[in-house]
Amino acid sequence: MPLCFAPRxxxxxxxxxxxxxxxxxxxxEGCTSAGKTAGAVHAFDSLKNVLDWRFLxxxxxxxxxxxxxxxxxxxxFGLNLFYSGTVRSLGRLxxxxxxxxxxxxxxxxxxxxxxxxxxxxxxxxxxxRTVAGKVFLILDEVHHTSSDLAFGQAxxxxxxxxxxxxxLMTSGTPFRSDNRRILGNWLTYTPVEENAYQCIPDFQxxxxxxxxxxxxxxxxxxxxxxxxxxxxxxxxxxxxxxTNATNEQDLTDALNTAIDVxxxxxxxxxxxxxxRMKLDRAKGLPECATYVRVPTIxxxxxxxxxxxxxxxxxxxxxxxxxxxxxxxxxxxLGQDSSEQxxxxxxxxxxSARSWIIGVGMLGEGVSIxxxxxxxxxxxxxxxxxxxxxxxxxxxxxxxxAPEPVETxxxxxxxxxxxxxxxxxxIAHVVREREENEGRESRExxxxxxxxxxSQQLNxxxxxxxxxxxxxxxxxxxxxxxxxxxxxxxxxxxxxxFGRYWHKxxxxxxxxxxxxxxxxxxxxxxxxxxxxQMLADQGSSSTVIPDGFPSEYGDYLPTKKTAFARREAxxxxxxxxxxxxxxxxxxxxxxxxxxxxxxxxxxxxxxNDTFIGxxxxxxxxxxxxxRIADAPTRIKGIEDL
Length: 640
Fold this sequence. Notes:
eight-stranded mixed β-sheet
């Protein structure tokens, strides 16, 4: 065993289990940060001389992970693994014989490389000439493969029994969302009911185990409620929430309105994370960062600008492919994302960027230890994707005193259920259809197989406006009532007890639920503060918008309404001039009327109702934001 590798308890137990149950095909299920890479390579290193394994082949789910896997194998075990793929000067991958002569112990390739062109057949031929029967194969995050699809077929073609001595397959989430078997010939599936089969790992190390062993940091979820207005066809829906939805379409529309980047829900989500990170900086942790997951590249670009306008901070956008349906460019967007991720992960101190926005790039194995918060601003609701996103946060940072992590999710009941069941054991059950029922589902793509994935908004749906309000917290599968969560949040920000609390507010709220005496003691202080704030708000009547005179707060409601309406009218004319400076007088008049209508609709104000000063204030603030964005983002009314 290399001197630099000190196995964790579970890794020792796994290797002992592997050595005593040396099956041809073995499935290791291990959660993120548990050390699956070290565990798998440890198994190879401990037996390579005993069983005369001459060559190690590792297949990983992305190009980004090839170098990372090879680096870990070298740092921990002194193993040299070739990871550069096809060598341009050779026009091919080096053969095992060439690599062994250069003192390599094996190679790392990706599922994408293996399935491209005839690479799997060429690799098969090369392995068969030199190391047939003496290859140890590691299929990393094996759920990316299925015998029905390209990745799985490439693996089966390249690594038959005649070539491979043993196959060790690893996964943090050993199931697919598309109801397909992963690799049915190599994994064990046991019938659980008629036409239903469950995948059985040979060794398991779950999130609950890692949490108990303190291998991963404490984590919790924060839900955000809201009211949503949107248009579907000719109908406009106002005041919709996740709780008053009557059908799946209502829930889907509410979710798609919530994640609309220009809406109020996203604004509150960004401010939530920004506030959390300000507290981190105040206590000496400037590197802590937030991961925002969005459904499309267009949304990622908009999110970057929204974060800048609200916080003044820059965000890194990383993507795995240009899936923007409106993109007509031939840019190389995404090709250098691996290097961008590595640079972001290595940033330290006050110059470290605080935001990273992902579309599909932050998958398994991507390690950015300083991520502390996550915003789920996507309509993806599949278990596999949800768990993979959660696990991007579960790295111990700093290593000597790991910080707790939090995920903000829309209060969509399906996402709430996923958060509640995050620690539960999720079995991979495939429900096989009758032959005449399943023909249409034979085609598909590798990867997540997200059956409830990023649903494209159809043409008759348009989000109008949204609000955001913190709801329940979720920790250890338990929903925390708001009264406890509110007191816990206040304690962490304002009391000595809270400042020394080293878990999330949800964990503190959970403790307060169990210790009613402590809760009542701090609740009294909290309620006094709230009462004082309400009294202060009552005396000042209103928060004066930027640009309004200081005496505005003393105006009577009627005078406030007239003043706020005039200011909003001024901003409408200003925005129309910015967008249509060369328009004729009549055309600009028409544009002013259109902007008025859009501003009212975006702020949930009806044209045929009386608008009080609060409504005009909202419209005024919205117009100010549009004017500020106009020089760089807004080109016309269609962008409002």
